């Protein structure tokens, strides 16, 4: 009897854990406002602000840098913008393109 209860309890715990993992995965996926890669050479400050770790101020810095220095030639060029360091770049690199 004890073994049957332990087996049922194990199954309940496993099922609960699986549901928790699925739900947390879904909520994580919904947190990003980025829908398609953002072209940093054409994006507005509002579009840039939708990137993870980029708020209004950093977005405006990117646009200002682009207007003063011309188009970005590579993704890495974004690190030249004040406020865009290694950590911020790592957050956005999969969400941006340079065209």
Please tag this protein with its features.
mainly alpha, DNA polymerase, domain 1, 56% helix, 4% strand, two-stranded parallel sheet, 2 domains, single chain, 4 helices, 99 residues, elongated
Question: What does this 3D model show about the protein?
Answer:
- The protein has helices spanning 2-31, 45-48, 56-69, 86-92, and strands at 38-39, 96-97.
- Strands 1-2 form a two-stranded parallel sheet.
- It folds into two domains: 1-31; 38-97, DNA polymerase, domain 1 (Orthogonal Bundle).
- The chain is mainly α and 99 residues long.
- Residues 26-32 have low confidence and may be disordered.
- Helices cover 56% and strands 4% of the residues.
Report a brief summary of the structure.
The chain is mainly alpha-helical and 99 residues long. The protein has helices at 2-31, 45-48, 56-69, 86-92, and strands spanning 38-39, 96-97.
SSE layout:
Layout: H1 2-31, E1 38-39, H2 45-48, H3 56-69, H4 86-92, E2 96-97
Parallel strand pairs: 1-2
CATH superfamily of the largest domain: Photosystem II 12 kDa extrinsic protein
> At the first level of CATH, what is the class of the largest domain?
Mainly Alpha
Q: How far is the first residue's CA from the last residue's CA?
A: 67 Å
The fold-level CATH name of the largest domain is: DNA polymerase, domain 1
Give the CA-based shape: elongated
What percent strand?
A: under 5%
Question: If helices are DSSP runs of H or I spanning 4 or more residues, what is the number of helices?
Answer: 4
The number of strands is 2
Structural class: mainly alpha
The biggest sheet amounts to: 2 strands, parallel
* CATH architectural grouping of the largest domain: Orthogonal Bundle
Rounded Rg: 22 Å
């Amino acid at each position: 009897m004890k073994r049957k209860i332990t087996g049922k309890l194990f199954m309940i715990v496993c099922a609960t854990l699986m549901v928790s993992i699925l739900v947390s995965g879904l909520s994580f996926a919904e947190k990003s406002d980025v829908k398609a890669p953002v072209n940093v050479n054409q994006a507005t400050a509002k579009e840039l602000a939708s990137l993870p770790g980029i708020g209004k101020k950093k977005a405006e810095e990117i646009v200002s840098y682009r207007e003063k220095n011309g188009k970005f030639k590579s993704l890495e060029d974004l690190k030249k913008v004040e406020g865009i360091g290694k950590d911020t770049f790592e957050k956005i690199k999969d969400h941006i393109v340079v065209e």
